[in-house]
Design a protein that fits this description.
With 273 residues, this protein is α/β, with parallel strands linked by helices. 33% of the residues lie in helices and 23% in strands. The two termini are 15 Å apart.
């Protein structure tokens, strides 16, 4: 168990610069860190965090796991905290005006690299291969979409009247593999010594999990969530620990993404020690 003082920086040291997902689902992972003088938080959509981490903006960032595979020679996992699920997610969904087996084109929300690859793997496996994937240009085009992958807080505002059918990709992955899924992990440059940072991030996660209901009430409405639904989301739907089963699910995802040709092969994953 990490201690409350883990990750403290000594006199003269710069604060840890952390890149954080700008959605409600990241709040349990940074609980209390906004009050730490040794930490600076910078929020962005998941798809931009990896490039900013590699570009030197951060000491560590909450990156999409598929980017960890793509940049495995450069990045390491630094904490057992994560954003995951063991079934339904609520916020990684394909919305459709036609039944899933009748879908011929899926527009993709590119805010999450991982969810895009997950959709491209799941659809031919569970619903048929005769489907094309295209970029969602902007929100104004949503009404013209037959079906669309959306992620994060924006999902809360989608009316069932707009899209009659919904497929939750967390549930679909569980049906397909029987395993949990991991969407994002804390990562840093392989050359960095991040042991104290990893302890601090795990301790923040532990606090956040204990205070999930409070975080839902405080931050849910800021992200467009009704507080009661936000509490269910943080306490029942999401998982925040990188268990052995989660790691197994992550490796299964990497293996299938690589075998499909959606990402190149990579070295074995490494975590900070």
């Amino acid at each position: 168990m990490a201690t409350e003082n883990s990750g403290k920086r000594g006199a003269g040291q710069s604060p840890w610069r952390l890149g954080v997902v700008s959605y409600l689902n990241a709040r349990p992972l940074i609980c209390g860190l906004e009050r730490e003088s040794a930490v600076r938080l910078d929020f962005d959509v998941p798809s931009r965090l990896t490039a900013r981490l590699l570009g030197g903006d951060f000491d560590a960032a909450l990156v999409p796991v598929i980017d960890l595979l793509r940049h495995n020679s450069e990045l390491q996992i630094v904490s057992d905290a994560c954003i995951g699920c063991d079934g339904e997610t609520l916020t990684v969904r394909i919305f459709s005006k036609v039944p899933p087996t009748d879908i011929r084109r899926i527009h993709l929300d590119l805010d999450s690299h991982t969810s895009v690859i997950l959709a491209r793997l799941i659809w031919p496996a569970l619903y048929g291969e005769d489907v094309s994937f295209v970029q969602l240009e902007d929100a104004a085009s949503l009404e013209q979409c037959e079906s669309v992958l959306l992620i994060g807080d924006k999902v809360v505002g989608i009316s069932p009247d707009e899209f009659r059918y919904q497929v939750d990709l967390g549930s679909a992955w569980k049906t397909w593999t029987g395993l949990p899924f991991v969407f994002a992990v804390w990562a840093a440059d392989r050359a960095r010594d991040t042991r104290s940072l990893g302890e601090m991030l795990s301790a923040a996660r532990d606090r956040g999990v204990r205070k999930g209901g409070q975080l839902a009430v405080e931050f849910g409405p800021r992200h467009g969530w009704p507080a009661a639904l936000a509490q269910q989301y943080l306490e029942r739907y999401l998982t925040f620990g990188l268990t052995d089963k989660h790691v197994e699910g992550m490796i299964r995802f990497f293996d299938r993404a690589t075998a499909s040709g959606l990402v190149p092969g990579a070295q074995e994953l490494q975590a900070a020690t």
